[in-house]
Amino acid sequence: MSSNNVAVVEIAQIAGKFTSSIVLQADNKYIDVKSILGLFTTLVSHKDYELHVHGPDAEEAKVAMAEVFAKHGLQIAVITE
């Protein structure tokens, strides 16, 4: 398993713990972070990501997602509306 695969699985697993909607924006594509398939097709081909989190546990989700992305060396900007 490549390190990217490990990142995808871990990101999706952590996202799945939250009830909030967690959406990754890469260019003009929006991917549900809980979708392993969506992440596989996106994390490989892009460098700059924005993360949009909405829901009852959004604050906790933002922190957890920022940590797991950073752990795998992926740059994301967590968007706070």
Which helices and strands appear, and what pairs or packs with what?
Elements: H1 3-15, E1 21-26, E2 29-32, H2 36-43, E3 49-54, H3 58-71, E4 76-79
Organism: Paenibacillus crassostreae
Keywords: Sugar transport, Transport
Protein name: PTS sugar transporter
Structure commentary:
With 81 residues, this protein is an alpha+beta fold. It has a single domain, classed as 2-Layer Sandwich (Histidine-containing Protein, Chain: A). Helices cover 43% and strands 25% of the residues. It is built from 3 helices and 4 strands; from the N terminus they run αββαβαβ. The chain has a 4-stranded mixed β-sheet with strand order 2-1-3-4, covered by helices on one side. Strand 1 (21-26) and strand 2 (29-32) form a beta hairpin.
Explain briefly what this protein structure is.
This protein is of the alpha+beta class.
Key traits:
alpha+beta; four-stranded mixed sheet; 43% helix; 25% strand; sugar transport; transport; HPr-like_sf; HPr-like; PTS sugar transporter
